[in-house]
Specification:
Oligomer: single chain
Order of helices and strands: HHH
Number of helices: 3
Mean pLDDT: 80
Shape: elongated
């Protein structure tokens, strides 16, 4: 005799699909069926794409590291250049300040000399007594070369 549950599919629901029979246990040592040629080709293609992707990604990472290192070196070089420019600017400012100071001093000295000359040339404003004449000394006489040579020989001659 059939029960009502078995007529309905065994689970008590009227329109449910029947339960498939249990599969026999798979023997792990039994030979497995070989995959078809397109399946093996697809697996090999996927593996190759994975390898190419990984190699490309590692190359891109290496390149990115090289770019970062080069950018860091360039930035350091630019910082050094900026530092040197500041030092050169300070040196240029110091030299210019020294030049201006010397030029101003020369200008002041020239004005003082001009005023002194004008004062000297104006006989009405002269209060100082006339200066005595300076004795003129003739041109220097040439050195005695023979005497110098003898003196040099005496100093280097062994004793």
């Amino acid at each position: 005799m059939l029960s009502i549950n078995s007529a309905r599919g065994g689970n008590g629901k009227a329109n449910a699909a029947p339960i498939p029979p249990p599969t026999p246990p798979v023997n792990e040592y039994a030979p497995r069926p070989k995959p078809s040629e397109p399946h093996r080709l697809g697996v090999a293609t996927i593996q190759a794409v994975d390898q190419i992707t990984e190699i490309s990604a590692s190359e891109v990472e290496k390149l990115a590291e090289q770019v970062e290192a080069a950018a860091h070196e360039t930035a350091e070089g630019l910082r050094e250049c900026a530092r040197r420019m500041r030092v050169c600017g300070v040196n240029a400012n110091e030299r210019l300040a020294n030049f201006v100071r010397v030029a101003t001093t020369c200008n002041d000295a020239a004005r003082m000399m001009l005023a002194s000359v004008e004062h000297r040339d104006d006989p009405g404003q002269r209060d100082d007594p006339p200066r005595p004449a300076v004795e003129q000394i003739g041109p220097p006489r040439p050195p005695d070369l023979a005497a110098l040579a003898a003196e040099i020989r005496e100093t280097i001659a062994p004793r």
